[in-house]
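P.,

For your records, the input lines for the assembly:
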Amino acid sequence: AQSVTQLDSHVSVSEGTPVLLRCNYSSSYSPSLFWYVQHPNKGLQLLLKYTSAATLVKGINGFEAEFKKSETSFHLTKPSAHMSDAAEYFCVVSDSSGGGADGLTFGKGTHLIIQP
Amino acid sequence: DVKVTQSSRYLVKRTGEKVFLECVQDMDHENMFWYRQDPGLGLRLIYFSYDVKMKEKGDIPEGYSVSREKKERFSLILESASTNQTSMYLCASRWGENTGELFFGEGSRLTVL
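Structure tokens returned:
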């Protein structure tokens, strides 16, 4: 069985300061992990994914995430927030044990607010 | 560019009406999905199709059906719309493996009065 917990439903940061969005997972197998971003009234877009290669994964728009097996975490970071980063972020886990029929388990999302 | 198109961005329907939500992808993807998104609940899988005419129920299939007669098109049907089906509906597609990227449409916001 697999599960995902996004530890914060809302995160607020000032423009130009670092962003940290936290994600913990549980998985019976070697998981693949994803972060997706959803801007208002849009579909989700892939930011980055981990599939058992390098543990530090770089994504689009300056985001990166580090896979830490010992901590079962896959936190998303960015050194300097921009107003355009305001959006909903979803952590997703996939492993061969399932999740749903799609093989995926979605976190409930973190709403990122950027203060000017 | 990769594209998943949901034909209706906003719909308002009355209770008991039959509703069709259409989704078309231009990437020759095998897998297509319908999700429902509600505040605080994240995305929940309604139905999944892994090939033409093939489908599997997701987490919340009750009150919904689907049709996939052609590879590029996946339709979600609400046989008799109810107010608790007011929601954002997201269509997605991907290649066949679970580690693949999902490509999403922009969503269809349905209001049932």
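Two observations worth noting. The CA atoms of residues 39 and 87 of chain A lie 5 Å apart. The longest strand of chain A covers residues 87-94.

Regards
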